[in-house]
Amino acid sequence: MNKWKLIGLCICITGLYAFTDIRSNKRQVQGIRVQFTGPDALYMTESAVNKLLIQNYGSLQNVPQEAIVLNTIESVLRSHDMVKSAQVYLTVNGELNAKITQRHPIGRVAADRQFYLDDQGTKMPLSANHSARVPIITGKITGKSLEDAYVILKFINEDPFLSKNVIGIHIEEEGDYRLKFRMDPFEVHLGGVADLKQKFDNFKAFYAKAAQDKTLAQYQMVSLEFENQVVCTKI
Asked: How buried is 138 (Cβ within 10 angstroms: 0-12 exposed, 13-18 middle, 19+ buried)?
């Protein structure tokens, strides 16, 4: 007798889950909520996200939940130039939630066609909504020189002193990179991207000593191109 009761109970539970699932699928989308996550929520707006969804799906309001393909919506959102990642899910209340992380620019290329270089080293278009305060990259822009500029920018962004003071990278040639500083008149000749830590450690030691001696304004050029040396030219 207990065996049949257990079987009957299992059938009832299974039926209840199936009924609940059917009811859930017949529910309609009650609204759309867009959330921007991460430090950069400046380059696209909620209205731009809604416009992108409408262009691809029409209005999702009151659409049956069973007709919503979350992976496809995520792919559409990730296709936007300003989106780094996107996660889409439905809540128990029938709300469609889109969590979006925007791309993070770390440099701006000043060429005939201007664009950002993002934290993944890929090209990112400028935004009509916000202009990022990042170092400007000028000079001879090539695939190789942009790869090197990305390596330099990553190093700069991980160093509090450099990220505060470096405002530009000028590409004289591939392997010949020069830095511009916010408050100082001199240009730093970095050379190539090899041994960046050693080069910048030497530079910071020079900078601290020159700042203490109040002689920073006397220098026109500071070269880090030679191994374990800081070579300076005065004005």
From this structure: middle
Residue in 103, 215, 112, 106 with CA at minimum distance from that of residue 153: 106
Local mean pLDDT, 10-residue blocks, the chain (235 residues): 55 50 63 87 91 86 82 94 94 91 96 94 95 97 97 97 97 97 94 96 96 94 93 91
Q: Counting runs of H as helices and runs of E as strands, what totals does the chain give?
A: 6, 12
Q: Give, as one character, the DSSP assignment of residue 64.
A: B
Do 232 and 219 form a contact (C-beta atoms < 8 A)? Answer: yes
Contact 24, 64 (CB under 8 A): no
What pLDDT was estimated at residue 230? 94
Which pLDDT belongs to residue 76?
A: 94
Residue 106 has a CB neighbour count (10 Å cut-off) of: 22
Give residues with Cβ within 8 angstroms of 235, minimum separation 6: 185, 217, 218, 219, 220
What residues pair up with 36 in beta bridges, in sequence order?
100
